[in-house]
Design goal:
heterodimer, A: about 350 residues, 5-stranded mixed β-sheet, globular, B: about 350 residues, 4-stranded parallel β-sheet
Amino acid sequence: MTIKQDERITLLHGAGGQLMGELLARLLKKFTRTSVESGIGLAELDDGAVIPLAGKNLVFTTDSHVVQPIFFPGGDIGRLAVAGTVNDLAVMGAQPLALSCGLVIPEGFPIAELERVLESMDRALEEAGAALITGDTKVLGHGELEGLIINTAGIGLAERVVTDAGLRLGDKLLVTGTIGDHGMALLAHREGLGFETTLESDVAPINHLIARALEVGGTGITAMKDPTRGGLASCLNELARKAKVGITVYESKIPMREEVCGLGELLGINPLEVANEGKAVIGVAPEKAEAVLEALRSHPLGRNAAIIGEATLDFPGKVILVTEVGGKRFLEDPIGDPVPRIC
Amino acid sequence: MMKDLRFRDRAKAEELARLIERLAPAEPVKLVHICGTHEVTITEFGLRSLLPPQVEILEGPGCPVCVTPVEHIDEAVALAEQGHIVTTFGDMARVPGTRKSLEGARSEGADVRIVYSIADAVELARKAAKEVIFFAIGFETTAPTVAAAMLDGVPDNFSLLVSHKLIPPAMAALLEGEHDISGFLAPGHVSTIIGLEPYRIFPEKYGMPVVIGGFEPLDILYSIALLLRQLREGTPKVENAYTRAVGSRGNLRAQEVLYEVFEVTDHYWRGMGLIPGSGLKLREEFSSWDARERFSLKVKSNESLHPGCRCAQVITAKATPDQCPLFSKGVCTPRTPYGPCMVGEEGMCHIWHRYGGRPKL
């Protein structure tokens, strides 16, 4: 790729789609030491990194959170900042131990709101069973920053690390619940469509839910990933690409709230391309799939879990969607953040 | 996902697929639809994978942005560069003209605004101190809304750059000369306005079956089945499979409004050339709101497509996007489009790209 002098970062570069992937691939080349020992590092672009330590696996991850508005139906930026990092640890197979919190606050931000955000973080930490043990606070002047930014880093311990590259032929793909809730709740709220009362973000730490799946599934759990930015579409494509297998999923089996579905139709946005903040996609060996599904469904956050498809030989690296009428097409990686259709 | 939607019932879809299989002749059949929204449904729901291999369905000139001649884009760019406010629909701004696109003109400082309808443009003109031009594109569906706005009265600083086109003459143009088309899936939205009458020429003069279809997956499968039945029985006619929206005479009030403001003229179509009686222009009484009359517009346009771009074949249903080397090599994408079919949201290349490029899995 030729690099032009006047290239600038656009919003699409941060939207979790193809363009972001291209940018990351380019930026990663700037670093030479990208892993510790034989652990998982930057090059793998997984949800977190792994440092092998005294027979255990120390998992480490970081994430910066911005969201507009900071309080939204079903959650807020604080809960999002905790859940995001906890879930990144959880889908690596780790139980979270502790988080850090870096706050970047714009001048003029109401202290009462900040307190509400931090209280919400504390509640989410309690749910996850993790502690907040270090932090940093910066304030930026008027015009330097528009909204609150929260960075959280987290560490956890894993007996057995589960990557997002381990899917094997024949493995079943499970989702832990309804798809598209977070993205669609935010879109509805922003568009002022009055769906707020019924549709809520799914933002939640799901480490206990995943622990239950791991207990039952054991080594039969081959891959995990949380379908955040880019949604289920992006997540499945990454699982297929990294494991070099094909994935077939059935639209009719993907759990989805009716409001999410209807709103998707209305706005011309595919709910499979929007973020989830309390869900995971899990690859499970076929003989364990039903047991894992049952384990997930026995947990309050996994009631709507479902088997949505399987890893196949067809089109390695690609995802095939069998549509609700039985047609087939590729489910593509979204190019960038979905925006409402104009007409 | 949408389990409760009647027009997406899987069992019915499978039943229709079996019916299509039974009705399909042994030899290849090429059916052509003329509507980007049809293409979206066909591709998004993977309907091609439900058709037998010998039955092919392609998009004809159904994307208004794709068929807009470069000359009209150049005129819009020239108006913007003269310092006027040019308003248009989102994807139209991105189609390259001879020198630049409207978006390109905007990045150089021209005032180009994206609007959702003519009402937004008229509203803008009422507030603006400058001349506001609405770049009026689209088929029989959008033209009546533009006509209605003109009849409601527009401010003196408002004018139209008209590029409205009519679908039936373009369908007829596909049948002039050599072609391998076996039937038309006529556009549902356009038909709500024009009704069935304008399609009679196809069975009568060309022996060509026509079925007017809706936009849900079952609508389309059903329409395809009807087309194949007509072919099998050798009785070409105009059938309405979208009766819940299309009346046989269409929307008479919309037609009245349309022809009160516009009259039929010859139009150039991108990738197809000049088609007699295929466009609209403002009637004499409205000519003072014609941007071409109000402003001096001398443009030198180059209508040719990028070398290697097969948009002309795609628009005329002679090729699918994957038969274009620029498409199949991944060079031409919505981010880096070479031809209008990749820019227009209703263009076949754009739609196929969005859903993975190989809709017949």
